[in-house]
């Protein structure tokens, strides 16, 4: 174990985790999701201490879920205060979880999670941060694996919480137990917020945490360690599958509305990899939403002989054999031209586009006026704009440069990756100049127009409903 003399046990544990898994490097910027509870408070303080050793910058974001009225407001003030004491910039924002859950027909838990990650990624892009840090710990991982088992899961679910995700989320506390975190706070006389809803068993996770796990530990005291060993063994299997899948990806032909693979190659593959090949093909032409195990099984149960067959799948998708290929195709191909629109936008005036039910305001502002961007308010480098600005919807061949990433991706693939429903994609307004998409309104800003150290003139863009 790496041991730094000036760090205590938990601080050393987090430092070792960061180094071992390459979570944070010198000169990087991280954004911490700060609830003010024990876990994120401890992590905030530890990261502040480690930032002088590793040399990285910390920002924090506290989201007020508006579910506990005065208590939630007190938590927000507490987070702002502790960040001020640590000389860390803390962003705060209110999110209406209750109304969002009703409008999307989601549980309060799921609605809160979706809104939290949406706001975290928005601010990460705005700050050009390298990572989002969450305070998930050892006990959270146990709860997550059990929840997935009870709902029904496969190999991916048994792998538990990833310590480092491809989208930039990192979890330095993942190997620390809750008891270690609370002991750290008590020994250092550090206060933190207590969310009383964590003790209310109407939520599924709370029932697992407060009722199920204590009973399991009574029967088997080392139950949690057994679960983590299973998790680690499963990850080895998943890594093998991921590596093997890369080979097949290179033999799958993908275009706008279909994906195909040589059927002999598919049927000669090992049984454990076949479902992953099918899922990869579907996910590249449409979302995997509503695709169940039985749909994948129905494809794989079809004969490998030259028999011609066709299977209907959810979401206007068909799987069929044509000659030597398995083809997965979207029946209703995108038809953009019949629904296309384009509206010119002028500066320093409210551009009302009644056909879309929105109004757009472009206004040049000073550098010191730039604030934290929100879903419908962005700041861009004015001097990077090429020619006129207008609002349009997507066109065949559109490319997009996601903020924080190198290079471009097709707009179609970007929409698929962020799970925009197919029927909504033609309706999403795009703010463009003569060369590129500047802003997918309500979703993402282009990296080509971001404000950087060389920016001299800033354009504030706002979108509002009429």
Helix-strand layout with pairing:
Layout: H1 9-20, E1 29-33, H2 38-54, E2 57-64, H3 70-85, E3 89-94, H4 97-104, H5 108-127, E4 131-133, H6 138-151, H7 155-158, E5 169-170, H8 178-187, H9 204-219, H10 223-249, E6 253-254, E7 258-262, H11 263-268, H12 274-283, H13 293-300, E8 310-313, E9 317-322, E10 325-330, E11 342-345, E12 350-353, E13 358-365, E14 377-381, E15 389-392, E16 399-400, E17 409-410, H14 411-417, E18 430-432, E19 437-440, E20 444-445, E21 458-465
Parallel strand pairs: 1-2, 1-4, 2-3, 4-5
Antiparallel strand pairs: 6-7, 7-10, 8-9, 9-10, 11-15, 12-13, 13-21, 14-21, 15-18, 16-17, 18-19, 19-20
Helix pairs in contact: 4-5, 6-9, 6-10, 12-13
Characterise this structure.
There is one protein chain. The protein is built from 14 helices and 21 strands. The protein has helices at residues 9-20, 38-54, 70-85, 97-104, 108-127, 138-151, 155-158, 178-187, 204-219, 223-249, 263-268, 274-283, 293-300, 411-417; strands spanning 29-33, 57-64, 89-94, 131-133, 169-170, 253-254, 258-262, 310-313, 317-322, 325-330, 342-345, 350-353, 358-365, 377-381, 389-392, 399-400, 409-410, 430-432, 437-440, 444-445, 458-465. The strands form five sheets. It has a five-stranded parallel sheet, with helices on both faces. Strands 6-7-10-9-8 form a five-stranded antiparallel sheet. The chain is globular, with a radius of gyration of 25 Å. The protein starts with 8 loop residues before the first helix and ends with a strand.
């Amino acid at each position: 174990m790496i041991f730094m003399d000036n760090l205590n046990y938990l601080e050393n544990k987090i430092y070792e985790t960061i180094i071992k898994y390459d979570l944070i490097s010198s000169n990087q910027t991280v954004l911490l999701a700060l609830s003010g509870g024990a876990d994120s408070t401890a992590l905030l303080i530890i990261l502040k201490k480690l930032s002088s050793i590793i040399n990285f910058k910390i920002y924090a974001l506290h989201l007020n879920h508006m579910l506990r009225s005065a208590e939630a407001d007190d938590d927000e003030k507490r987070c702002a205060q502790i960040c001020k004491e640590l000389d860390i910039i803390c962003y705060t924002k209110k999110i209406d979880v209750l109304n969002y859950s009703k409008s999307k027909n989601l549980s309060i838990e799921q609605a809160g999670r979706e809104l939290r990650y949406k706001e975290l990624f928005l601010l990460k892009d705005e700050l050009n941060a390298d990572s989002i840090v969450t305070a998930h710990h050892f006990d959270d991982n146990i709860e997550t694996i059990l929840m997935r088992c009870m709902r029904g899961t496969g190999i991916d679910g048994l792998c538990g919480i990833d310590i480092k995700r491809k989208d930039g989320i990192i979890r330095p506390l993942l190997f620390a137990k809750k008891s270690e975190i609370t002991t750290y706070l008590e020994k250092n006389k550090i206060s933190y917020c207590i969310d009383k809803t964590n003790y209310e068993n109407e939520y599924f996770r709370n029932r697992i945490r407060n009722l199920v796990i204590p009973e399991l530990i009574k029967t088997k005291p080392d139950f949690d360690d057994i679960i983590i060993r299973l998790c680690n063994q499963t990850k080895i299997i998943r890594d093998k599958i991921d590596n093997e899948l890369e080979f097949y990806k290179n033999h799958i032909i993908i275009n706008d509305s279909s994906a195909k693979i040589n059927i002999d190659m598919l049927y000669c593959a090992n049984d454990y990899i076949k479902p992953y090949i099918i899922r990869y093909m579907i996910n590249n032409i449409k979302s995997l939403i509503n695709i169940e195990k039985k749909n994948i099984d129905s494809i794989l149960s079809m004969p490998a002989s030259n028999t011609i067959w066709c299977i209907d799948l959810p979401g206007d998708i068909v799987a069929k054999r044509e000659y030597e290929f398995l083809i997965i195709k979207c029946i209703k191909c995108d038809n953009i031209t019949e629904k296309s629109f384009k509206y010119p936008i002028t500066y320093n005036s409210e551009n009302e586009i009644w056909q879309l039910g929105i109004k757009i305001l472009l206004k040049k502002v000073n550098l010191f006026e730039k604030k934290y961007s929100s879903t419908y308010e962005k700041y861009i480098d004015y001097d990077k704009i090429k020619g006129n600005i207008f609002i349009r919807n997507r066109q065949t061949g559109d490319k997009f440069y996601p903020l924080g990433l190198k290079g471009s991706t097709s707009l179609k693939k970007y929409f698929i990756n962020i799970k925009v429903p197919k029927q909504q994609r033609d309706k999403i307004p795009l703010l463009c100049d003569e060369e590129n998409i500047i802003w997918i309104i309500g979703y993402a800003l282009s990296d080509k127009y971001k404000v950087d150290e060389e920016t001299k003139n800033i354009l504030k863009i706002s979108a509002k409903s009429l």
